[in-house]
Amino acid sequence: MSDTPPDPDRGPRSTSALALLAFAGVLLFALFAALGAWQVERRAWKLALIERVEARVHAEPVDAPPPAEWPRINAGDHEYRHVRLEGVFLHEREALVQASTRLGPGYWVLTPLRTAHGVVLVNRGFVPHERRERATRGGNEPTGVVRLTGLLRMSEPGGGFLRRNDPAAERWFSRDVQAIAAARGLAEVAPFFVDADAAPPSVPHAKPRWPVGGLTVIAFHNSHLVYALTWFGLALGVALAACLVARAEHRLRRAHRSGRAGATDRSHDAAAD
């Protein structure tokens, strides 16, 4: 902090100018502090969400929601719930959705499962590009009534701005349940899909059986603490700037008073002479 004397050629700011600066400072401080507090609240909400999701993922599976509950399905209450299903796979109506996983680029295999209550799209897992065709997967297609468990996931409509789903060309970039169901002529389809759990290997250290399930990535972006510290830091910066302005203004006013007193003394001396 500099101790350079104030410029004697510049007088103190006017009362109106100081009032305007004070108003702007208070407004900015309040805004930055409020944004910091909001980020603290968001962080608490995000941590609670992560805790709920972790509890759902590791809980014992429950029956998938029946059709009566489908209109009320939402991400906050249902996504990542561990569910179980029973039905018959319609392998001839599967859809391949482009994917990038820890196993590399390829596709998710979404296969309709006809249950006693309707159809549920099941993400059976990942296959690389060379396993796109069903015949290349070693005949790993369960037949008859199957029972499976997995994580309930919400539909992913559209596919994005630059990578929109193109059902006519069989190009899928997102797991859009409604669009896939329409393209496959399916009716009474659940508004969610299920990421199937990984199947235990039949032989230890055996090569993966395609598709490979259990690759759901559960990650939540949580930078709210950094954002909160940034906003609170800006609020502190405004407060420090206000202190510096007040200090400089005090010194200017003191110097201005001293200058006026000196001028008065000189004028008295000149009059005496």
Q: State the oligomer.
A: single chain
Shape: elongated
CATH top level of the domain at 61-196?
Mainly Beta
Helix content: 25-40%
Number of extended strands: 7
Overall SS class = alpha+beta
The strand line-up of the biggest sheet is: 2-4-5-7-6
Give an overview in words:
The chain is α+β, with helices and mostly antiparallel strands and 273 residues long. Among the domains are: 14-58; 61-196, OB fold (Dihydrolipoamide Acetyltransferase, E2P) (Beta Barrel). It has 4 helices and 7 strands, in the order H-E-H-E-E-E-E-E-H-E-H. A 5-stranded mixed beta barrel has the order 2-4-5-7-6. The protein starts with 14 loop residues before the first helix and ends with a helix. The model has no long low-confidence stretch (mean pLDDT 84).
Describe this protein with a few key phrases.
21% strand; alpha+beta; 4 helices; five-stranded mixed barrel; OB fold (Dihydrolipoamide Acetyltransferase, E2P); elongated; single chain; 273 residues; 7 strands
